Automatic annotation (TrEMBL), chain A:
Residues 75-149 form the [2Fe-2S]-binding domain. InterPro entries: 2Fe-2S-bd, 2Fe-2S-bd_dom_sf, 2Fe-2S_ferredoxin-like_sf, 2Fe-2S_ferredoxin-type, Aldehyde_Oxdr_Iron-Sulfur, Beta-grasp_dom_sf. This is (2Fe-2S)-binding protein. It comes from Nocardioides kribbensis. CDD domains: fer2 (cd00207).
C-alpha cells in the first residue's frame, strides 16, 4: 500500500492505496467525493470528467500512482468559488439543463475545459466545437447543453 | 425556444358548476390532511359509437388510474410548525421533473411559496398496492386532482382555525406566502396555526378547488428544484449514498445472454479472495459477486475470475434466427373486400433489439439481517421489489424497508427491481451490507431490452372514390414481437380491472393477453381509414425485455407513418395534406397545422435533404413532429474518429404538442427535447446485435444513443392551445412521433423505403466487441495523455 498525495479542490490530500487504483475510485469510494459519476469506467461516457491542472481529464482512466503531489485535481465540487457558482454552472441553471442530472457534473467540467481550449487557440466556440463533445446524456438534454455552453462561454 | 399560449379555459361563473371533492383531515398534533389517490379520475362511461379504437375512450392512462380505485389509501400533506408543508409522493423521480411539478401543484392550492413546499419520494408503501407505479407518463395525470384536494383542504382548515382565533369568518381572510390575514390587521402564519387546525379525529370534509383562472403557479415556467444540487455535484444517486458497511460490490456475469454459473462455478475462489481490497466473494443466481474496498478492486477481481458457465437462454441464436422465428409467428393480413379499382399498399418493417439502460447503471444498496432488510434503489415499482425481496429472504413484507432513491434516468429500465433483488441476494449470501453496481458492459448484454419486432401493414386506397374524393378503405397493421416482460406488477390488476370496466370496454379486452391489452390500450391511429385493425402477436420468451420509453409506439408509429407516406404517394398528394385530410381528431389536426406553419413545410431543399412529418396520439394528448434530414455524402461520411457513428443528420426538428393542461411549460419542453433525441437514435443509430447468444454491445461507444454530433442544430418546441382542463402525459409523447418523422424524412431524402431499423443496423459493426471472458473491460491508464 502506497501513500498517494495530490491536491483535491484546493487542499492537499493523502490516501493509502495501491498505485494502480484509478483516480475515480479514490475520489468516490475512498474520499467520498461523489460529483464525478461512473458511467462506463473506460473513458467513453465522460460522466466523470474533472480537471487536472485546469485541463479536462477522466479519472476513470488515470492510475492514482501517476498523480504527482503538486497535481491539482478539481471536481465539480471545486468548480464554484465558494457560494458563487462558476458562470458555466449558472448557465446550466438558467437554461434548466438537468433532467436526471447524472451526467451533468461531467458535462459542465467538459464545457469549461472546451471553452478554455478554444480560447487558447485564439477563437470562440462554434457549433463544430459543440459537435466534438463526447459526454453522453441519456435523457437527451443536448439542446439545452449547447445553449448553456454558449451562455457560459460569454460569461466566463 | 418555447411558445406558450394561454391554455387555460375560462372559469365557469362564480363557483357554480365547480366540482367539489372529499378530502380527509387526519388525527394528529399538527394539521395533516389526506386525499384518496382515486379522487377525480374520470371513467369512460359514455355510450360507445361504432368504429372507434379503444384508446379513444379508454387508454392506458385510464387503466392505470382506475387500477387504484378499490385499493388506494390516502396520500397526505402535513403542515409543519415551521410553516412548511410536506408531502411524500408515491412515485419515482428519474429525471422527468415530477418533484418540481408536484411542488407547483401543491404550492398553488396551499398558496405557499414553492420554497416552503417539501415534496419527497415515498418509500415502498405496500398498502397502496398498485398505486405506486411510475410509468406510462401517468404521474401527473393520476395525481393532479388528489394532490390539489389535499392542498386545498389544508388551506381551508388553516383558514377556519385562523377565523376562530381572529373572531371572524374564513371567507373574510386572505392568504399570502403562508400568512393568513384579516382586514383588521391580524396575521398568523400557517406554522403557528397548524396545531389549532389539527384534528383529534378523522373527518371527511368537502372541498372546492381553486378555479384555473386563479392559477398563479400552474402553467408558469419553473426551473427544476434540484437544479443547483445537480450542477454542484450534490445531487445524490444510489451509489453516492454513504450507508455504513455497504462496500462496493459487482458481479461477474456469463458471456451469453442470461447465462448462469455452474454449481461451485468459480474455479479460483481462493486466489480471488486473496486479491487486494477484496472482502467477500459469493456465488449467486446470476453470477459471482465480489465485494471490495473500491469498485476498481471489484473490476480487477472479476477480470481474474475463472468461472464455468451454463449456456444462456438464447444460446447459438443470432439476429437473423430470432427474426425468422418472429416471421413464423406473424399473423396473416386479411384480404380486404374492396372495389376492384382500389390499390393496395403493403409494407413490412423490422425493428432490432434496443437497450433501455440509463446512464446510471443498475445500482442498489442492501443491508440484509436475520430479522429484516433495508434497501436503497431507484425503483419505479418499489412495492413489487419489496414483496419479491421478502419472498426471496423468507421475511414478512413489513420487515423489508425499501427506500426509493432519485434515479439517474430510467426510460422503463427501472420498472423492474432486478438490481434491488440481486443486491439483497448478495447481502444475504455474504452476511454484510453491499453497494451493488452493474458494470456498463453488463447493461446491454444482460440488462433489459426493447424486444425485436416486425410490423406489417396492408392498406387500400381508392383514388377518386364514389364522391370524387380519395378514400382509404382499410388499414391493417400486424405487429409481431419478441415477448415484452410486463411482470413488474400491472399484470395482476389487469384482470380485476378489466372485469370492472364499462361493459363495452371490458368486452373489448376480454381474452387478450396482458401484452395485447397494453398494445390495444396504447395504440390509436387517429385517421379515418375505413376498416382499421392494429394487432399484436408475441413469440419467444428467451430474452430479458421490458417496456422501453413509449413501449410499442415508436415501432408501430414508424411502420404506420411510413405506410401513410406511401398511400399519399399512390394518390399523388402531399404527405402532410394527406394526413390533414384523413385525421379525425381536432387536437391532432391542430398540432399538425402548427408544425406546418412553424416548420415551413414544403420549403425548397437541395437533393439529399428532405422534410418528414408524423403525428402521434397517446397519453391524453397529441404530438406532431416535422424534421429535416441531411443524407448527402458530405454529412453521412463525416469522419469524427473511431467508434463515432455519424451518418445522416437531422438538422432541424419542430415539435408541436397538445398535452392538456400544462403544469410546467419548461418541463414539457424538456421532455419533448429529450424525446426527440430518443426518436432520432431509434431510427438512425441505436441497436444491440445478437450473435451466437451474446449481445456484442458493451459500451456507450458501441450502443449508439444520440451524441452531440448527431444532435439537430435547431430544435423548436411549441406547446399549443388546448381545451383540456386536465394534464396529459408528456414523458414519452415525442419519442414515437420523432422516430416516425425521421424515418419518413429519410425515405423522402433518399428515395428508398428503409426496411430495417435502426437504418445502420446492417452496416459493418463500427466497433471491436469487448471481451466476453472476462465480461468487463479493464479501465484504461492513459487518461493523462488525453487531457484538453
Amino acid at each position: 500500500m502506497a501513500k498517494q498525495t495530490f491536491i483535491l479542490n484546493g487542499k492537499p490530500v493523502t490516501v493509502n492505496v495501491n498505485d494502480d487504483v484509478r483516480v475515480l475510485w479514490v475520489l468516490r469510494d475512498l474520499l467520498g467525493v461523489t460529483g464525478p459519476k461512473y458511467g462506463c469506467g473506460i473513458n467513453v461516457c465522460k460522466a466523470c470528467t474533472s480537471h487536472i491542472n485546469g485541463r479536462a481529464f477522466n479519472p476513470c482512466s488515470v492510475r492514482v500512482g501517476d498523480l504527482k503531489p503538486k497535481d491539482r485535481v478539481t471536481t465539480i465540487e471545486g468548480l464554484a468559488d465558494g457560494r458563487k457558482l462558476h458562470p458555466m454552472q449558472q448557465a446550466w441553471i438558467d437554461r434548466d439543463v438537468a433532467q436526471c442530472g447524472y451526467c451533468q457534473p461531467g458535462q459542465i467540467m467538459a464545457a469549461v475545459a472546451l471553452v478554455r481550449k478554444v480560447r487558447r487557440e485564439g477563437r470562440s466556440i462554434t457549433e463544430r466545437d459543440l459537435d466534438t463533445i463526447r459526454n453522453i446524456c441519456r435523457c437527451g438534454t443536448y439542446t439545452r447543453i449547447r445553449e448553456a455552453i454558449l451562455q457560459g462561454a460569454r460569461d466566463m | 425556444m418555447t411558445e406558450l399560449h394561454d391554455h387555460q379555459s375560462a372559469a365557469p361563473p362564480a363557483a357554480l358548476g365547480r366540482r367539489s371533492f372529499i378530502g380527509y383531515v387526519l388525527a394528529g398534533t399538527t394539521l395533516v390532511v389526506g386525499a384518496d389517490l382515486a379522487t377525480g379520475s374520470n371513467r369512460a362511461s359514455a355510450a360507445i359509437p361504432s368504429g372507434p379504437q379503444l384508446p379513444e375512450l379508454y387508454d392506458l392512462e385510464d387503466l392505470q388510474t382506475d387500477s387504484a380505485l378499490p385499493t388506494s389509501q390516502l396520500i397526505t400533506v402535513t403542515i409543519n410548525e415551521d410553516g412548511t408543508a410536506s408531502f411524500e409522493l408515491p412515485r419515482t423521480e428519474v429525471g422527468q421533473g415530477i418533484l418540481t411539478s408536484t411542488t407547483m401543484i401543491l404550492a398553488e392550492e396551499l398558496d405557499l411559496p414553492m420554497s416552503k413546499v417539501k415534496v419527497t419520494l415515498a418509500p415502498a408503501r405496500p398498502e397502496l398496492v398498485f398505486n405506486q407505479l411510475t410509468g406510462g407518463s401517468n404521474t401527473t395525470f393520476s395525481t393532479y386532482t388528489p394532490v390539489r384536494v389535499a392542498g386545498a383542504l389544508a388551506r381551508q382548515k388553516l383558514l377556519e382555525a385562523a377565523a376562530i382565533l381572529f373572531g371572524t369568518t374564513a371567507d373574510r381572510l386572505t392568504t399570502t406566502g403562508g400568512v393568513i390575514s384579516d382586514l383588521a390587521g391580524n396575521n398568523v402564519t400557517y406554522g403557528d396555526i397548524a396545531g389549532d387546525a389539527a384534528s383529534q379525529v378523522v373527518e371527511a370534509v368537502e372541498v372546492v378547488l381553486r378555479p384555473p383562472s386563479d392559477f398563479r403557479v400552474i402553467g408558469t415556467p419553473k426551473n427544476r428544484l434540484d437544479a443547483r444540487a445537480a450542477v454542484t455535484g450534490k445531487k445524490d444517486f444510489t451509489t453516492d449514498l454513504d450507508v455504513p458497511g455497504a462496500l462496493p460490490t459487482m458481479v461477474c456475469r456469463a458471456p451469453e445472454h442470461q447465462g448462469t454459473p455452474k454449481e461451485n462455478g468459480l474455479k479460483n475462489l481462493a486466489a480471488i479472495k486473496k486479491m487486494p481490497g477484496v472482502t467477500h466473494v459469493a456465488q449467486i443466481s446470476s453470477g459471482i459477486a465480489v465485494r471490495a474496498k473500491t469498485f476498481g478492486h471489484c473490476i480487477d477481481a472479476i477480470r481474474e475470475m475463472q468461472v464455468d458457465w451454463n449456456p444462456g437462454t438464447a444460446s447459438g441464436e443470432s439476429d437473423e434466427t430470432v427474426l425468422a422465428g418472429i416471421k413464423r409467428a406473424e399473423l396473416p393480413l386479411v384480404v380486404p373486400d374492396v372495389p376492384v379499382l382500389a390499390e393496395s399498399v403493403e409494407t413490412e418493417f423490422e425493428f432490432m433489439f434496443r437497450s433501455s439502460a440509463a446512464l446510471e447503471p443498475y445500482a442498489a444498496i442492501a443491508d440484509v439481517r436475520e430479522d429484516g432488510a433495508e434497501i436503497w434503489a431507484g425503483l419505479k415499482v418499489p412495492i413489487l421489489a419489496q414483496e419479491n425481496i421478502a419472498i426471496m429472504l423468507g421475511l414478512p413484507v413489513n420487515a423489508v424497508k425499501v427506500n426509493v432513491i432519485t434515479g439517474g434516468g430510467s426510460f422503463g429500465h427501472k420498472l423492474f427491481g432486478d438490481h434491488a433483488l440481486e443486491a439483497a441476494e448478495i447481502s444475504k449470501a455474504m452476511g454484510v451490507p453491499v453497494k451493488l453496481m452493474w458494470h456498463r458492459a453488463d447493461e446491454p448484454r444482460q440488462g433489459r431490452l426493447h424486444p425485436m419486432a416486425t410490423s406489417r401493414v396492408r392498406a387500400t386506397v381508392l383514388k377518386g372514390g364514389l364522391t370524387g374524393e380519395d378514400q382509404v378503405l382499410s388499414f391493417e397493421q400486424r405487429h409481431t414481437s419478441v415477448v415484452t416482460d410486463f411482470s413488474h406488477g400491472l399484470g395482476e390488476i389487469l384482470t380485476a380491472t378489466a372485469d370492472e370496466l364499462p361493459t363495452e370496454v371490458g368486452r373489448y379486452l376480454g381474452g387478450l393477453t396482458f401484452s395485447q391489452s397494453i398494445f390495444t390500450l396504447t395504440q390509436e391511429l387517429p385517421y379515418d381509414f375505413g376498416v382499421v385493425t392494429q394487432l399484436l402477436n408475441e413469440t419467444d420468451q428467451r430474452f430479458r425485455t421490458g417496456s422501453m420509453r413509449n413501449i410499442y409506439s415508436p415501432d408501430v408509429a414508424v411502420a404506420a407513418e411510413l405506410t401513410i407516406d406511401q398511400l399519399a404517394k399512390k394518390v399523388g398528394t402531399d404527405p402532410l395534406e394527406f394526413r390533414l385530410k384523413f385525421l379525425k381528431n381536432d387536437r391532432v389536426k391542430a398540432v399538425l397545422e402548427k408544425v406546418r406553419k412553424e416548420g415551413n413545410w414544403g420549403r425548397s431543399l437541395p437533393a439529399g435533404v428532405a422534410q418528414g412529418v408524423a403525428i402521434h396520439k397517446e397519453y391524453k394528448g397529441a404530438t406532431a413532429i416535422l424534421v429535416e434530414i441531411d443524407t448527402r455524402p458530405s454529412t453521412v461520411n463525416r469522419d469524427l474518429g473511431p467508434e463515432t457513428v455519424t451518418g445522416p443528420r437531422v438538422t432541424k426538428v419542430v415539435v408541436a404538442v397538445d398535452c392538456g393542461l400544462v403544469i410546467n411549460p419548461r418541463g414539457v419542453e424538456a421532455q419533448m427535447q429529450g424525446g426527440v433525441m430518443d426518436g432520432i437514435a431509434l431510427t438512425l443509430t441505436s441497436s444491440c446485435h445478437l450473435k451466437n447468444g451474446r449481445f456484442l454491445e458493451a459500451s456507450w461507444d458501441n450502443y449508439f444513443y444520440t451524441r452531440q454530433w448527431n444532435v439537430p442544430p435547431e430544435v423548436e418546441v411549441h406547446i399549443v392551445e388546448t381545451d383540456s382542463d386536465t394534464p396529459g402525459g408528456v414523458g414519452e409523447a415525442a419519442v414515437g412521433s420523432t422516430a416516425a418523422a425521421v424515418a419518413c424524412a429519410y425515405a423522402r431524402a433518399t428515395g428508398t423505403l428503409p426496411k430495417r431499423f435502426p437504418i445502420n443496423h446492417d452496416d459493418p459493426i463500427a466497433f471491436k466487441p469487448k471481451s466476453f471472458v472476462p465480461p468487463v473491460p479493464p479501465s484504461p491508464t492513459n487518461g493523462l495523455k488525453l487531457t484538453y
